[in-house]
Amino acid sequence: MAEPTLHIGRKISKVRELKGMKQETLASELGISQQAVSKIEQSADVDGEALEKIAKILGLSSEAIKNFSEEAVFNIIGNTYHDNSASLNYQCSFNPIDKIVDLYNEKVALLERLLQAEKEKNELIKSK
C-alpha cells in the first residue's frame, strides 16, 4: 500500500477543494463523469496524461500536484499572515457603542423622513 504522502488521488482532491472546485466541475472540464473523478481521487497513482489534464484545469503543473503537501500549505499561510488582525487582542480604533448609536440615529432620521413623505402623500390624496 502506498504511503498517504504519495497518494496522487488524494492530492488532486485536496488541491481541487482548496481551489473551491467541485468534483462535478472538474468532471465537466475533463469530459468525464463525477464518478470517474471520484475514482481518480481514490487512486494512489494516476496516469501521467490524465494528471497533466487535471493539473492544467486546476491551474498547476503536474509536478506541483505530485509535490503538494498540506504541511507546506499551512506553512505558507502561517508565514503570510502575521499582521495579527485576527488576534484576540485586536483593539478597535472606534467605540462600537458609538457606532450603534450612530446607526440608530440614522434609522430614526430615515423613519422620520418616510413618515413625513407619507403625510405629504396623504395630504395630496385628500386635496384631490
From TrEMBL:
Keywords: Coiled coil, DNA-binding. Residues 100-128 form a coiled coil. It holds the Pfam family HTH_3. PROSITE patterns: HTH_CROC1. The keyword S-adenosyl-L-methionine does not apply. Residues 12-65 form the HTH cro/C1-type domain. The keyword DNA-binding applies. Transmembrane segments: none annotated. SMART domains: HTH_XRE. GO terms for molecular function: DNA binding. This is XRE family transcriptional regulator. It comes from Mucilaginibacter gilvus. The lineage of its organism: Bacteria, Pseudomonadati, Bacteroidota, Sphingobacteriia, Sphingobacteriales.
